[in-house]
From TrEMBL:
GO molecular function, a single term: glycosyltransferase activity
Record's keyword annotation contains Transcription: no
Region listing for Disordered, in residue ranges: 347-436
Biological classification of the source: Eukaryota, Fungi, Dikarya, Ascomycota, Pezizomycotina
GH16 domain segment(s): 61-277
Low complexity bias (residue ranges): 348-364
Protein name, entry field: GH16 domain-containing protein
Keyword line: Glycosidase, Hydrolase, Signal
Stored PANTHER family: GLYCOSIDASE CRH2-RELATED, GLYCOSYL HYDROLASE-RELATED
Signal peptide residues on this chain, from the entry's feature table: 1-20
Gene Ontology process terms (BP): carbohydrate metabolic process; fungal-type cell wall organization
Gene Ontology CC entries for this record: fungal-type cell wall
Organism in which the protein naturally occurs: Polytolypa hystricis (strain UAMH7299)
Family named by the database record: Belongs to the glycosyl hydrolase 16 family. CRH1 subfamily.
Function: Dual chitinase/transglycosylase that plays a role in cell wall architecture. Chitinase and transglycosylase activities are coupled. Required for the polysaccharide cross-linking at the septa and the cell wall. More specifically, transfers chitin to 1,6-beta-glucan in the cell wall.
Amino acid sequence: MAPLLRYAMALAMASQLVLSQRIEVECTPSKKCPDSKPCCSQYGQCGVGAYCLGGCDPKSSTTVDACVPAPVCQSKTFKWDNLDSVAPNTKYLGDASKADWVASGQPLTTGGNLLLTMAPETVGTLLASNHYMWYGKTTARLKTSRGKGVVTAFILLSDVKDEVDFEWIGSNLQDVETNYYFQGITDYSNGDTFKTEDTFNNFHLYEIDWTPEAVKWSIDGKVVRTLERKSTFNATTDQYNYPQSPSRVQLSLWPGGLPSNGEGTIEWAGGLVNWEHPDITNHGYYYATFDEVTIECYDPPANADIKGDTSYIFKDASGTEDTVQMTNKKTVLKSFLGTGVNMTADYPSKSSSSSSSKSPAESSDVAVIPGLTGGGPGTNGQRESEGKNNKDGDGGDGGDDGDGSPTNDWDRPATTGFTQGNVDGPGDSNGASSQNEQMLRGSLFAGLVALTVLVTL
């Protein structure tokens, strides 16, 4: 899927928006965010708080330091007996020591596996690692979803939109697509497809091995594709169009086949989503199943600018490897009013504000969490006035209420428009919220901003 398109798809995932509303992209590298809302989200909208965390685009923000420093890589293996390592995007403030993943949508667990779900009138589920990886190896043992228009993805995505992908189209369970992008630049020659066997019923092991010199894609222990950095040299720009900036691991399930999506995207996704598919009638949702996921960090490149071991920052807006610096700068905001240049900004105390009983998204006039209202993807972090989505506490353990339905530890969408809904399903359940589009064709859930973003949430 196209990078702009991906970049809107991820957008959709993290958003709860009004159906078919068009939202103007607010920020681009040539049109930066204003000082009042300095952070440009992955979806091309300006705000503070979560806008300044994972996905904050330093090239389009007011300044590169408006984006909060990104937590450095940690090698870990993830199993899914529960969702203790996952935080909802409505609560995560940048403390990767408390949550390894941030989620939007409805993740569940069952039988020691992670389920990414997509119920009717939702746009699926996205998990993104909170620790960034600046070269390393990541593996995922998974079974994809199935059905026309249903897309499963396992990718690396950086804040400047470097990307390395595995993607699966639900109508074709014998093929896996691989792709890569440099800073979101569309190049349709970058993709390649490989044969495998029944990706829905069979677990397969997928691996991305990323070094400064090459990217290798492997399936079930066999390298199927190698991209060498030297092959990506662009003589016109005198640079390597090679993924080279700290990236998050992202796992996602999303609907490429929505009527509101572009024809090219729908065709690429295998057609329109069938919301009466057996998986919907039997379980209430489409689902992709993830077993073990691993992240193995490699050493930074030999010429890396190392001033610490806590976080990554960009020294300037070019976003290339030589502008990345490892620092000891903090990564945690005090509240959703914070930014990279004012990380201690907070809401008024109870004694000084009558709105203190409201959630951050309800009590602030500035956008703080991309896409939490019907206003559009990333245009306004406030919740709908009904307050249906309000939730307090620290996220808990994401357990169930005894009936298979997720607890309220996860964000609930507004009741208007096309939103991520609650899911009732079999087995243990743990839950999270939303997404959007207008695609070219490129990759993952990263996808969709081309001048205007057609919201489908």
